[in-house]
Structures
1.
Amino acid sequence: MGRNNERNIKKHNDKLHKAQAKTKQAELSRKEKLKEIVKKFNENNPSAGN
């Protein structure tokens, strides 16, 4: 049996896609938190925004 059999390729791809999804989710989460922080800051300091 070679290293690049179907089972190993599938296992590798599943692991890779899981990691990619995790990083994408983390990035979206960070952006969402940043939006909330900016929104709260602008509510507290309305003169700073303009």
Note: The CA atoms of residues 36 and 42 lie 10 Å apart.
2.
Amino acid sequence: MPSTTKSRRPTGWSPAGYTTIRGTTSGIEMLSSLPRLWWRNECAPKTEWLKFTRRELPDEEGVYTSLMDEKSVSPILSLPGRENIGLGRHWHGLSVMLWVLNGIVYVTLLFATGLWRRIIPTSWDVFGEAWESLKTYLSLDVPDISHFQPYDSLQMLGYTFVIFVLAPFLMLTGVAMSPAIRNRFPRLIKLLGGHQGARSLHFICMVLFAGFIVVHVSLVFLVHREHNVIHMVFGGGEVTSARAAQALVIVVVTIVAVVVFWIALSYWSLADRARAQRFTAAFTEIGRKIFLNRLRPLGAANTVDTDADVSKFHWTNGLPPTEEESTVWVKARDNNWEGLTITVRDDINDVEKVLSVDDLKKLPRHSYVATHTCMQGWSATSRWTGVRLTDVMEVLGPRPEGARYLLAESYGLAQKMYDNRPREPFYACIDLDTMAEATSILAYERNGHEIEDYLGGPARTRVESNHGYKHVKWISRLMWIHDFADYGDGRGGTHEDSALQAFNGRI
């Protein structure tokens, strides 16, 4: 039997429980931006295994964007709600960082104090005893208090599974959706079923974890309630009705306070979204700097992703420029790209050159297979062919002194601006280390043919270590710049400006 050591029994409203709930609500915001789950990377219409929308997807590519599929969820249910995927991702990242930190401290103390024996079974008898406990619960009966010393066998197995199996797998499937991880450890991601496999498994793990918390907290009040609440709040002592009532009030008030704070956090975020972006992105960048920024794509060493993985269907986020948006692009498209130019510029020294698509094709050719992932959740695998960004910018000569970023600008406009001002030309900035990666290219072919109009033709940037919002379609200009704070709203890109995403798109 477990140790008879008396101690407080953890509830679902510990720091871990709170960050789990906050992570779940921000996860709801992320899921609502693309309320569908697939097992296959291509995310083809009518192949979802689960969806939370009645909308039906058209079979034709390029006519329906992922932004059109977004659903608005109440701030009471999601963090922050109301179609704010950027802020939802920031809050999710911050919650996960706190959740992981809490887990590391908890497990460390668990083994340092020897209290692991309360949770981890030390005898095979635990399975038989757990089965008997399960039958008791299923019969709607209550196990005798003597079985809880401090936990019964069924609880021990539940805690062991959640702490040492479910939680680590939740972490693994979470980081597996990062393009930085996918391009550095492609074999691991393929083992998980690709991006969509990891996304679906992550969702299932979230449901199991949330279900565990609900059942766990419910049983606190249904099974030996007075004993439970007294030991949780006071750590033990005499079990009396007066002390149980006092402990119960403290528990209920704590739960209500947490829920109120969680909802208030949503409304605080929505009251000034730019402020919320500055606050949350600053904290989540700490995790990216510690871990993800150190990872570089394998490039040519990646033999895992092959042409056999190429998707038959490819989503898009954004539609090609219209006549009102760019007469230059529309006219060139109608004339087989005749006359279309791409400006390569040194914005520090006011020097530039103009290239045609044919000029691009004369530069060293680079080709690879990669999976594109949108921050909303969809993915598609293609073979991309083009010119490395470093080779394109070399037409201007050596990199100018003071250049710290590359800015790519589009002939197309942003889909919408978060403050409802007129739409502006789409742009994105990347740092020089990211630009130097072998899979950062200006692509002009996909799967052996010219890039389709809706996917960015005639040329688009590919930055495989980052999510799709750092990839610019319908490219019009590439520029050396000193500081992205001098362009747009100063956040480093249109999605950072209009959707409040993070400058660093590695996760």
Note: The longest strand covers residues 379-388.
3.
Amino acid sequence: MKKQKHNYSFWTKYKRFAGNEILLYLIMVLGIVLGIIVISFIRE
């Protein structure tokens, strides 16, 4: 029970940062994918 309570308090504490963090990860993933595509076109 303590772990569930801890997770709940964690999410309520950092809920306001969740949106920004998800956007940050999406931008990072998109940047990595675009970088791989650009490098593959340059090497050809």
Note: Helices lie at 2-13, 15-43.
4.
Amino acid sequence: MTLKQQKIDVTDRVVGKLKNGELELYLENERIGKMTLPEGCMLELEHHFEGSGKSIYQNVTTTDQPEAKYTDCDQGGWC
């Protein structure tokens, strides 16, 4: 039995994470490289996301008082 080197196309399995102006590349959980983004590059995001500086934010709707308890429940606990 002999071993030989072979190339496998993993392009569609590579993901990127933004960090300090660079795009870090991962295959599964292994960091495989990085891509430096040029200064002033344009970032196009979906309508409920926005970029600011080196961060990306998601606009979400949350409850105003997440710890508020039900007030219209009867003595048996039925609301």
Note: Residues 13-58 form one domain.
